[in-house]
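Page 47, continued from p. 46.
Same chain as before, 389 aa.
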Amino acid sequence: MRVLHVITGLRAGGAEQQLRLLLRHLPGHHRCEVAVLTAPGAVADGIRADGTPVHHLGMRGNRDAAVLPRLTVLVRRGRFDVVHTHLYRACLYGRLAARLAGVRAVVATEHSLLDGCIESRPATRGVRALYLAAERLGSTTVAVSDDVRDRLAAWGVPPHRLEVLPNGVDAARHVRPDAARAALRRTLRDRLGLPQEAHVVGAVGRLVPGKRFDVLVDALALLAARRPAGAAAPGREPWLLLVGDGPGRAALEARAHAAGVARRTVFAGERDDVPDLLTAVDVLAAPSDAETFGLAVLEGLAAGLPVRYGSCPALDRLPPGAAPGARRLPPDPAAYADALAAPAGHRPPPLPQPPAVHHYDIARTAAGLGALYDRVGAPRRPAPAPVRR
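Result:
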């Protein structure tokens, strides 16, 4: 079965990384290609390196309708059985192109839908109307969490067209022998400019206001202010490692300078090696108070880190005890400063992966998605001929 994934961009974001993981784990009889409308980035390079073709369609803006015939031709020539769209712009153009090319099996995944906004854009009446008009062109809309499914149903998407397939984490990639983990930790800290003995707080995500990484910058300043002068060597000071990029980077850098912690705040930029980078930190913080899933929290738990977070719908649906290493906090710098302070004594060993990580293993999600493709993309059987009497 041939499947074309259509996505708006392929910079290092949550939806983009999820696509790459799914492509790695889908059942082998699904032969996939990817069409990216605009902004191919590190994830596009990674997908190509994994062996999946990526087609860049060169879209110049939201209203660049010239992309539609190019995408339609790509779908038709590729003789794809299923078209799977990701992110708002790709869902609009991808569903329409699939229908124009004669593909009836059209799946869309809604990755980021919060109350009042979709993918950081206000969910105005016009945005909702356009979304629903395009949704009718598809076969199934996949929600990455129960919360997203409920919001889509409230918008007016018929429940029978909705299916929940949660985001997943590559649990196996985070498992390393102790010696290999320690060696990678030392190497990455040297490359990133992190002192080997520092207590490092890590955070992963797009640098946008909604992620509330400003809380961590302020918490770092509070931690520094609490340390008596000369109480410890500089290397034992708390540090912050921010993995990701986005329009909020300049404001965060300015905030770190103003707070006097710029020297101990490392901006790693857009990366596609998050499982490796997490070996270099001691605790993961995710202070956002509004998420559609909370993938960064699951990544931290898979890496054996204690996690302090503001919102994680993925954990809210699990029984108590599914993630003993995670603790919810209000988005307040003082609360995070208290929770992120270095523990007394030696650095504790990595925590075992909790049940929450195994529940959201990417292999389970990929198997569910493969079954969905097989169901919606199966050739229709001709109706039986009427029996003549």
